[in-house]
Design a protein that fits this description.
- The complex is a heterodimer.
- By secondary structure, chain A is mainly alpha-helical.
- Chain A has a single domain (about 65-300), classed as MetI-like fold.
- In chain A, about 75% of the residues lie in helices and about 5% in strands.
- Chain A has helices spanning about 5-15, 20-45, 65-70, 75-105, 110-125, 125-135, 145-150, 160-190, 195-200, 205-235, 240-245, 255-265, 270-300; strands at about 50, 55-60.
- By secondary structure, chain B is an all-alpha fold.
- Chain B has a single domain, classed as MetI-like fold (Orthogonal Bundle), CATH 1.10.3720.
- Chain B is built from twelve helices and no strands.
- Chain B is globular, with a radius of gyration of 23 Å.
- The chains are: A mainly alpha, B mainly alpha.
- Chains A and B meet through helix 1, helix 2, helix 4, helix 5 and helix 6 of A and helix 1, helix 4, helix 6, helix 7 and helix 8 of B.
């Protein structure tokens, strides 16, 4: 039976059945409407209101919440650290992930086991990484300071220092997320046809020029895709900062997601928390638009 | 050169695990020595004992297990049905629905917490198992659909057409034909979603507030952020609890490494 006819008959039969389509889609659409779409639009609505759940009536206050957040140092510093955290993390993850992918793409004894190891940081809970590194970064008893002390004779007050804490949080995030980026880039490398490299060798490329003229342009779409994914995902990062620094010292490592949680569920200021959520939505939206534009550019240039 | 790079990579990835495991089997008083000890001395199980006495560890473990298993089954089931409609029945707008699903991946989870909390309070879903499973399955749904749709598109139509001609109705078609063919993809997504749910913090933290509903992740951060008398952290208990949380994940990774890698990379490479 010709494939095309089979496909036509099968889809024709079901396409007429709107009830069937509806029933199949219902659980998924229902879940998303209930837990993602409705909360999203309700957050927009709430951001123009004052609302403390202990004193029920919601009061319309116009732009008051938004005016307040421009003067709120906890919010402005969390915006700047969120952006710094995401940009630096993503760049490091792509650079180091590329290195991991190149290593794991070479043939060596025990490669299968090393690839399995590469999966572990992705698989473990972020809270475990946060707690484990917090212990290792301990100023007095931590292993990192001990190693630093033995090798170069200094001890850094990691999590109590403004830039020390920022560096520690970003380093922990990079440790946890880079192997995943490496995994995706390794799959991209494996998709490159080998004869391209042979053709390159005939034309006299060495390993380094082959990387820049063959490998990199070919996997650029995947690099941009995973970069966009990591940016959007890390903009909403919550667990790491919550379990590692609590946003401190001061507001040094405060991120938007954690600030929203604090304002909503510790200060019970639901309206204001929604206004901060709006900032997060806008940042995610802007990042997505830039990322998609970039993706289109590298895809077309191929 | 290559060997050195591999060894450096292994050291950076594995050392933190070594350190957590080592700490968890070291007596509390020896954790606070300068310089720290790099090898097992006075191996002890005491930290695990104290941990099990100070928090309802078994309860949390079972909660995490049920939460992760339930979310993974519900999300894959819902995603399978929707993906079937999106990939198989090319109804008008199927592509738009697919893109909207995938794009909803970008909605920040924490941004919807306030309305969700109010909604869950009004519908008596806070501290319920089904409430938590609904939230978590919904969270991983877009990614699951993203992976399953291209997989379904690869299945030849003739197989299903033949079954229909033989008189199979849709439930039978799913059960005897489509599900068996989809098995590797479905198992992969079950495992990946289980791991993601096992690791989840925000939803249990906000929506499972009573002691009997908390998960391991919530128990761990409570230990980590609670104020203590001396201001220090109970590293003995924290490292033991981290090990408890990691072991089931490690078992899954070791057994299903290939499947997990294929699932995680399929979306990006397509």
């Amino acid at each position: 039976m010709p494939a095309r006819a089979a496909r036509f008959r099968l889809t024709q039969r079901m396409r007429r059945n709107a009830t069937l389509i509806g029933l199949l889609l219902l659980p998924a659409i229902g879940l998303r409407l209930f837990t993602a779409v409705y909360p999203f639009f309700n957050t927009i609505w709430l951001s123009f209101h004052d609302w403390n759940p202990a004193f029920p009536p919601q009061q319309f206050v116009g732009l008051k919440n938004f005016q307040a957040l421009t003067r709120d140092i906890a919010v402005t510093s969390s915006i700047s650290f969120t952006i710094l955290f995401v940009v630096v993390s993503t760049l490091l993850e792509i650079a180091l992930g590329m290195a991991i992918a190149l290593i794991l793409n070479r043939a060596f004894f025990g490669r299968g086991a090393v690839r399995a190891v590469n999966l572990i940081p992705w698989a473990i809970p972020m809270v475990v990484a946060a707690v484990g590194f917090r212990w290792m970064y301990d100023t007095q008893y931590g292993i990192i300071n001990d190693l630093l002390h033995r090798t170069i004779g200094v001890k850094v007050p990691w999590l109590v220092d403004f830039w020390g804490a920022r560096a520690a949080v970003i380093a922990t995030n990079v440790w946890k997320s880079t192997p995943f980026v490496g995994l995706v880039l390794l799959a991209a490398l494996q998709g490159i046809p080998q004869d391209l490299y042979e053709a390159g060798r005939v034309d006299g490329t060495n390993r380094i020029s082959a990387f820049f003229y063959i490998t990199l342009p070919l996997i650029m779409p995947q690099i941009v895709t995973i970069g966009l994914f990591m940016v959007v995902w890390q903009l909403a990062a919550f667990d790491l900062v919550f379990a590692m620094t609590g946003g401190g010292p001061g507001f040094a490592t405060q991120v938007l997601a954690y600030r929203i949680y604090q304002v909503a569920f510790m200060a019970l200021n639901f309206g204001y928390a929604s206004a901060i959520s709006m900032v997060l939505f806008v940042v995610v939206g802007v990042a997505s638009v830039i990322g998609l534009a970039l993706f289109r550019k590298v895809e077309v240039s191929l | 050169m290559l060997t050195a790079a591999v060894l450096a990579f292994l050291f950076v990835v594995l050392f933190p695990f070594y350190w957590i495991v080592l700490s968890s089997f070291t007596p509390k008083y020896e954790l606070f020595t300068i310089p720290p000890r790099y090898w097992f001395s006075n191996f002890t199980l005491e930290n695990y004992q104290v941990l099990a006495e100070s928090i309802p560890l078994a309860r949390y473990f079972v909660n995490s297990l049920l939460f992760a298993a339930g979310s993974s089954v519900v999300s894959v089931a819902a995603a399978f049905l929707a993906s079937y409609a999106l990939a198989r029945i090319q109804f008008r707008g199927a592509n738009v629905v697919f893109i909207v699903f995938v794009m909803s991946l970008a909605l920040p989870q924490v941004g919807g917490l306030v309305p969700l909390f109010e909604l869950f309070k009004n519908t008596n879903l806070i501290n319920t198992y089904h409430g938590l499973v609904m939230l978590m399955s919904s969270l991983v749904l877009p990614f699951t659909i993203w992976i399953l749709v291209p997989f379904l598109r690869q299945i030849p139509y003739e197989i299903e057409e033949a079954a229909i001609i033989d008189g199979a109705r849709l439930p039978q078609l799913f059960w005897f034909i489509t599900l068996p063919i989809m098995r590797p993809a479905l198992v992969t997504m079950l495992i990946i979603n289980f791991i993601i749910a096992w690791n989840e913090l925000i939803y249990p933290l906000v929506f499972a507030t009573s002691g009997s509903n908390k998960t391991l992740s919530v128990g761990l951060v409570e230990l980590a952020v609670q104020p203590t008398a001396g201001g220090g952290r109970p590293w003995d208990l924290l490292s033991a609890m981290s090990v408890v949380m990691i072991v089931p994940i490690l078992v899954l990774v070791l057994f299903f490494q290939r499947l997990i890698v294929s699932g995680l990379t399929r979306g990006a490479v397509k």
